[in-house]
Automatic annotation (TrEMBL):
One term of GO molecular function: kinase activity
CDD domains: KdgK
Lineage: Bacteria, Bacillati, Actinomycetota, Actinomycetes, Mycobacteriales
Carbohydrate kinase PfkB domain segment(s): 27-294
UniProt keyword annotation of Kinase present: yes
Keywords: Kinase, Transferase
Listed InterPro entries: PfkB_dom, Ribokinase-like
Organism (species): Mycobacterium asiaticum
Keyword Kinase in record: yes
Name of protein: Sugar kinase
GO CC list: cytosol
Amino acid sequence: MVTQPDIAVVGVHVLDTHIVGVASIPAGSDGQLVETIKVSPAGTAGGTAVVLSRLGAHVRSYGAVGADPLGDILLSLLGSNGVDVSGLVQIVGSQTSASVIPVRPNGDRPAWHCVGANAAFSLDAVDLDEVAGGTHVHLGGPEFLGGAAAATLLRHAKDNGCSTSIDILAAGDPGLLSWISEAFPHTDYLLPNDEQVLGFTGEADLETGARKLLAAGVRCVAVTRGREGALVVTADDAFAVPAYAVDVVDTTGCGDAFSAGFLLGRAIGRDLAESARLGCAVAAQVAGGLGTDAGLYDLAVVDDFAAQNQGPG
């Protein structure tokens, strides 16, 4: 019998508003009918927390939201998905981080984003012993804490027997890499996308770039590649896992979904390849709906989907 993973998710929590069917921005003060408007929990911590909880983990969120109606909505949505939100602080005078994502008929999804309370979050707001009281600590958006604080968090987690992971929100930039790399020696899994890897390292080849990140101290790099699936690189191995074919509605949150599936797989004892396949299958579930909380998927549903789609596309 597999013990339920107890995962602390720390960092960026966002409230997304998806608007489907935006053909153009109306001129002046004109209006336009759209197909759907939906809000959902998101962010490299918040979105990942929702999916981990859907897949059966016990999830505790730590971070900051505003003391505002958006924060109340985000806390409610996280809680309704089974996430323990007692570690999320509400900051007076700072709005909840939020994005508005107009989804165009061709699938493009530009975004407006307000950083809000995520910029005010610090380790002073959390009890490190409490965070490290489970089996795994996932840090979403280490750039908001900075490398020294991120290293403190993840070092404490490792010292207390937790495995650790990082997902980065910002675009790949060598300066950003320098800002957060102090945390890498305490990181078991780094979960970037392909553009971040190439941007951070200046390499033209994804595996070569991933190996540079291994040299900086992380133990495994699992890179998402959009429609191409994922690439997993360790000191001893490198392999690709293809994406699953799905009728795409919105790809927002697919990276967070992959992270959750990959980490859940590792937490319940699946090997790296099985975990990466699970990550890709969860990402396909999310791509077929609006937001990480769309649909009724759980681990059994995702595993069944993967089994019925043995020929990933």
